[in-house]
Structures are given as structure tokens and as C-alpha cells.
Amino acid sequence: MNRKSDNTNYGTVAVTIHWVSAIAIVGLLISGFSAGQVPDPQTKAAILRLHAPLGIVIAILTLARIVWWWRYDTRPAPTGGSPAWQERAARAVHLLFYVVILGMAASGIGMFILSGAGLVLFGGSQSALPDFHDYLPRIPHGIGARAMTALFVIHAGAALYHHFVKRDATLKRMWFAKPG
Ligand code: HEM
Questions:
Q1: Phi/psi of residue 137, nearest 5 degrees
Q2: What is the number of domains present in the chain?
Q3: Cα 126 to ligand 1 centroid, rounded to whole Å
Q4: Which end of the chain is less packed: N or C, by CB atoms within 10 Å?
């Protein structure tokens, strides 16, 4: 299998970035909503010590993904057989993923910088964890969290619809073993 994509299939680099990102985003949604709800400050701190670095890693991976598509690779053509509105909707969802991921990372980092949480969680400061709702970037981070959940459901739902209802190659070609 090739590193780069061709007209019908995704290459190994694109497939790897896709599935690593998917797992990381599920982890970020679970850890983020848990951190937002858990009452015990020590448990919340432990969750955020994983959540924040993972959020930064996914932002770097997303920037690498943008560079990969921009400079080195070209997406395969649509599998065909879908109405034009579905292809437009798919492109919009994919674009929104990039916007929301980068917006979530920026607002997360913003919350950390403004509240001093970085020092409490990683710098040995003995202060209590701040209430993140006192800081403006908490608003876009909360909206982005819900937008990300909606995008994820639409995106995964569409992939399963193609795989099980239309029975085309949409999902299979985003895997390492390729349809014939
Ligand atoms: C793509 C990246 C990210 C995703 C998908 C994500 C996801 C989430 C979600 C789902 C929540 C819960 C929101 C709510 O309950 O309204 C959350 C909260 C939070 N996230 Fe993130 N996050 C990301 C990046 C980051 C980064 C990079 C940081 C810090 C450097 C960060 C710090 C926080 C903090 C401090 C909270 C608030 C917890 C609270 O309200 O007590 N996040 N995140």
C-alpha cells in the first residue's frame, strides 16, 4: 500500500492520521465532559493532566494533516453515486472538523494561560484549581465541545450508512487493506 493517496484510495499516512485523530478526539470528548462535571478537585486535576496535553497533540497532528494535504497528497475522488448535496455536506463537515479542532485547542490553551491552571497542574503551584467558567475562552470551548459531538455523530453516521446501507467503498478505503 502506498504512503500517498491515489484517485480511488487513501494512502497509509492519511489513514493513520485519520484513525489516530478519531481515537484522540473520542478521548478528548470523554475526558473533557468528565472534567467539566466531576466534583472532586483532585480527580478533575488528574483528568486535565491528560486532557490538556492530548488536546495540544491533536492540534499539532491537525496542523500536520493540513500541511500533508496541502503540500504532499491529493484526496481520492468521491466514491460516486451520492447526491450532490451529500457530497457538499461531507466537504462542509470535514472542513468544520479542522475549524472546531483548532478552535478547541486555542480556547483550551487560552483558558490555561488566563487562569494560571498550567502552573497548578504542571508547574508545582500549590494554589487551588481555578473555576474555568470565570474565563472567557470557556464559552467557545463549551460550544465547540457540543459542535464537535454533533460533527462526530453526523460523520460516523454517514460512514456507517455508506458501509451498511449503500454498501460502497467509502469506509473501506479509509482503512489499510484496500477494496479490490
Ligand atoms: C481538540 C481539542 C480539544 C477537545 C475536543 C476538547 C474537549 C473538551 C470538552 C468536551 C470539554 C467539556 C466542555 C463542557 O463540559 O462544556 C472540555 C473542557 C475543558 N478543556 Fe478541553 N478539549 C480540547 C483541547 C483542550 C486543550 C488544549 C486544553 C488546555 C490546554 C483544554 C482544557 C480544558 C479545560 C480546562 C476544560 C474545562 C473543565 C471545566 O469546565 O472545569 N482542552 N474540553
A1: -65, -10
A2: 1
A3: 22
A4: C
pTM over 0.90: yes
The answer to whether residue 121 is domain-embedded is yes
Q: CATH number, domain at 103?
A: 1.20.950
Q: What is the mean pLDDT of residues 163-168?
A: 95
Beta carbons within 10 angstroms of residue 15's beta carbon: 18
DSSP3 helix / strand / coil % (the chain, rounded to 5): 75, 0, 25
Q: Whose CA is nearest to atom 33 of ligand 1?
A: 108
Q: Residues lining ligand 1, judged by CB closer than 6 Å? A: 25, 28-29, 32-33, 35-36, 48, 51-52, 55-56, 58, 101, 104-105, 108-109, 111-112, 132, 141-142, 145, 148
With beta carbons less than 8 A apart as the criterion, state whether 120 and 129 touch.
Answer: yes
Q: What is the pLDDT of residues 112-151, one digit of tens each?
A: 999 999 999 999 888 899 999 999 999 999 999 999 999 9
